[in-house]
Amino acid sequence: MEAGNPTACLLVIGNEVLSGRTQDANIRFLAVKLGERGIPLREVRVIPDIAATIIKTVNETRAMFDYVFTTGGIGPTHDDLTSECVAAAFGVPWEPHPEAWSRMERSYKPGEFNAARQRMATMPRGATLIDNALSVAPGFQIGNVYVMAGVPRVMQSMFEWLAPRLQGGPRIEQRAVHAVGLPEGVIAEGLGAIQARYPQLDLGSYPFYRPGGNGVALVAKGTDVAAAEAAIAEVTAMITGFGKAPIPGEPEG
Amino acid sequence: MEAGNPTACLLVIGNEVLSGRTQDANIRFLAVKLGERGIPLREVRVIPDIAATIIKTVNETRAMFDYVFTTGGIGPTHDDLTSECVAAAFGVPWEPHPEAWSRMERSYKPGEFNAARQRMATMPRGATLIDNALSVAPGFQIGNVYVMAGVPRVMQSMFEWLAPRLQGGPRIEQRAVHAVGLPEGVIAEGLGAIQARYPQLDLGSYPFYRPGGNGVALVAKGTDVAAAEAAIAEVTAMITGFGKAPIPGEPEG
Question: What is the DSSP code string of A70-124?
Answer without folding.
Answer: EES--SSSTT--HHHHHHHHHT--EEE-HHHHHHHHHHS-TT-S-HHHHHTTEEE
